[in-house]
Amino acid sequence: MVKNLNKIIFVDDDKIQHMINKKNMLRVKPDLELIFFADPFLALDWLESNSADLLLLDINMPEMSGWEFLELLAAKNIEINVNMLSSSMDPDDFQKSNEFTSVSGFLIKPLQLDVIERLLNP
C-alpha cells in the first residue's frame, strides 16, 4: 500500500463506477484529488506529463486491456503504483498481475467502503 495518497487516477470504461468510487472515496477522504478516464489512451497521454500517487486500472476495457495499458506504461517509462480492478475473481488475472512490478494490489469491483478505507488509511 502507498502511504499518503493524495491523488488517484482511475482508468475504467464504466462511468457509473467513476461516480460510485468518487462518492465513496471522498466520503472517506474529502481532500483527495481524483482523476477519472474512461479512455485509456487519454489516460496514457495525461500520465506522460502528470503524476499521481496511485493508478486504479480496470482489466477489461474495450479499447485496450489493463495488461496492454501496463505494457505501454513500461514502454513509455512511466512509473506509478498500480492496483488492478476486476469485476471477476479470475485466478488467472490475479496471477498475471504478479508479472508486473508496478502492480501492488488487486481489487474487486465494485469497491466496497471497507476496501476503500483500507486503501486510503493503511
UniProtKB/TrEMBL annotation:
SUPFAM superfamilies: CheY-like (SSF52172). Keywords: Phosphoprotein. Pfam families: Response_reg (PF00072). The modification 4-aspartylphosphate is found at D58. Residues 7-122 form the Response regulatory domain. InterPro entries: CheY-like_superfamily, Sig_transdc_resp-reg_receiver, TCS_response_regulator. This is Response regulator. It comes from Belliella aquatica.
